[in-house]
């Protein structure tokens, strides 16, 4: 077992302030008042945890992609990579963004729901390309840039990188999905 210890009792006051900030920023969207296990364990290296959480905060709460597009992209990434922790943690945020269970199920199965806007369909295919380490198809990139600008295209690929980091942490350190969150179907 590669489980990491809970470092909270050993954090400096400055690191504890960052830790508390990370938990409070995510409390509404995550639906829990306490720190998620992945960030809790990541604070065994407070510098890394601070920077990864700042990156995540930028993407999730200050990004250029609309919330429903961001959450569909995260769910698509999580499904493609069988990143169950991330899939489970983004069910509630997806619902808060108005994404239906039908769309979530389709995206999880690897489908591109035809009732989604064309630019959102392009986003899902772009995530597929990024996961496969392929170039985004030109027509899809053009739709994404037209809808969200070049910054949106960059943010979309950065989402894949952020959630790759999170999924590596979960896999490498045996971080389990917290009780009460939905179990991934894969």
Radius of gyration: 16 Å
* Run of helices and strands: HHHHHHHHH
β-sheet strand percentage: under 5%
Mean pLDDT across residues: 95
- Gap between N and C termini: 22 Å
What is the general shape?
globular
Q: Unreliable segments (pLDDT under 50, ≥5 consecutive)? A: none
Structural class: mainly alpha
Residue share in helix: 55-70%
Largest sheet: none
Total beta-strand segments: 0
**How many structural domains does the protein architecture include?**
2
Number of helical elements: 9
Can you describe this structure?
There is one protein chain. By secondary structure, the chain is an all-alpha fold. It folds into two domains: 13-61; 65-172. It is 67% helix and 0% strand. It contains nine helices and no strands. It is globular. 34% of the residues are buried.
Concise account of the structure shown:
67% of the residues lie in helices and 0% in strands.
Reconstruct the topology from this structure.
Elements: H1 13-30, H2 37-42, H3 46-62, H4 67-80, H5 84-89, H6 91-96, H7 101-108, H8 118-131, H9 138-172
Properties at a glance:
globular, 186 residues, 9 helices, mainly alpha, 2 domains
